[in-house]
Amino acid sequence: MASATEDPVLERYFKGHKAAITSLDFSPNGKQLATASWDTFLMLWNFKPHARAYRYVGHKDVVTSVQFSPHGNLLASASRDRTVRLWIPDKRGKFSEFKAHTAPVRSVDFSADGQFLATASEDKSIKVWSMYRQRFLYSLYRHTHWVRCAKFSPDGRLIVSCSEDKTIKIWDTTNKQCVNNFSDSVGFANFVDFNPSGTCIASAGSDQTVKVWDVRVNKLLQHYQVHSGGVNCISFHPSGNYLITASSDGTLKILDLLEGRLIYTLQGHTGPVFTVSFSKGGELFASGGADTQVLLWRTNFDELPYKGLNKRNLKRLHFDSPPHLLDIYPRTPHPHEEKVETVEINPKLEVIDLQISTPPVVDILSFDSTTTTETSGRTLPDKGEEACGYFLNPSLLSPECSPTTTKKKTEDMSDLPCESQRSIPLAVTDALEHIMEQLNVLTQISPQGLWRHLTDCEKEPCENLESSYDLLKENHVKNHFVSFCNIVLYVTFSLFIRHLFSLKAIALFTSCQI
């Protein structure tokens, strides 16, 4: 790690979204970054040189929040289309859809063990879902306005939520009751989260403030006024010693919580900054905003042995734990003005040969949806069901869904074998999956509708069959081979359906020119 005297450095830009970035999260292994945007897409960025970026298509409105599961085998997203989706972060785009909220969903958050998911919505509720059974569990109702964010505590016993009703509430996940309430008469919190030890929460205020509260004694510990615009997001460093903030004033601020002061002001975005997050190890952090860019920064300023601190903090997760030196913060509000010791960094002025990444983007279309609603939760998958290896916490898997199998399916996309290494070409696999989807749709059509569809289109498949075969023969292009396979299967299935019709139908078909 760099020495403590080094400043944060902007390493890379990522460009690919077509609208503002609303949320981002690092994968647990620190090799990938997921981003959500107003353009309705999720994107997955790989930090390896010359790696592709993947765009997940499926949400019908703005994607407001995204987060990796603790094991990295799932990617949760929330959207203004009122749904929550669990994606498999690979090339297939497989997902499971949750429908229970009656208004736009603003945030998603996994519990630390990956067993539960909390979602917050403009329907004034927080909902908790089981990841093991893929089903809705319960709702938390006490807010009187839109809920903007909900987060689990590190031990999973509590949930903190913030709302436009100008309150921050602490919920007990055991009895489903609100146990603490913090109110503000000026503005509301846009974002809230627990510190790594679980003893404090920090809020990002629409009134341009950042506040740190002790949830054990219900007191305000720190109050920062360092931004000139609303604060949209915060992120704790894994050590718990630093807090980074993102604001509509276009800047990022880094706060030293032990000393209670602002230490860095970071510029680089050309507009409001909506999201910021440290990586799981703390060596990197990323930010995104209205300029559609994702900025990846190297931390550099923290060389404290935070892993040792975290182990010690785990022993102090209970309300009756004795105070510790690291818990003693200044007790009075700390409005900060620009000071001599504050370092301002503008990478666009200081960095000349900055690496700008605009990688090739691969669109991943939604595939094989499983929908879960509040009234009809999905039951435990049957033995051998393919979804079990994808959507379950690896620590909870049955022998049929072994961790080894799950690990293979959740590897980085950059490590997946190329087409030449696969026993079956990827193009053929994709074609067969597409055909199965089409057959599934056809089996749901009424006989009358299917009859009409076939009589209208029966000439076209055979004509396309001949042209596709000739084109395949001349160019030997895989894409045409896929089209050829599609048409052959379609014609074969059409002929099969004809044999199922009555004699009158058969007579009609034979009277047509095939």
Q: What is the helix tally? A: 9
Calculate the mean pLDDT score and round it. Answer: 75
- The percent range for strand residues is 35-45%
Strand order of the largest sheet: 26-27-28-1-31
Main pleated-sheet profile: 5 strands, mixed
Give the structural class. Answer: alpha+beta
What is the global morphology? globular
Distance between the termini: 72 Å
Radius of gyration, in angstroms, nearest whole number: 26 Å
Low-confidence stretches: 1-5, 304-310, 312-340, 349-354, 376-426, 457-461, 471-478, 501-510
> Helical content, roughly?
10-25%
- Tell how many strands the DSSP assignment holds: 33
Organism: Papio anubis
Protein name: POC1 centriolar protein homolog B
Subcellular location: Cytoplasm, Cytoskeleton, Cilium basal body; Cytoplasm, Cytoskeleton, Microtubule organizing center, Centrosome, Centriole; Cytoplasm, Cytoskeleton, Spindle pole
Keywords: Cell projection, Cilium biogenesis/degradation, Coiled coil, Cytoplasm, Cytoskeleton, Phosphoprotein, Repeat, WD repeat
Fold and architecture overview:
It contains 9 helices and 33 strands. It is α+β, with helices and mostly antiparallel strands and 514 residues long. The strands form 7 sheets. It has a 5-stranded mixed β-sheet, with no helix packed on it. Strands 2-3-4-5-32 form a 5-stranded mixed β-sheet, with no helix packed on it. A hairpin with a 4-residue loop joins strand 24 (252-256) and strand 25. It is globular.
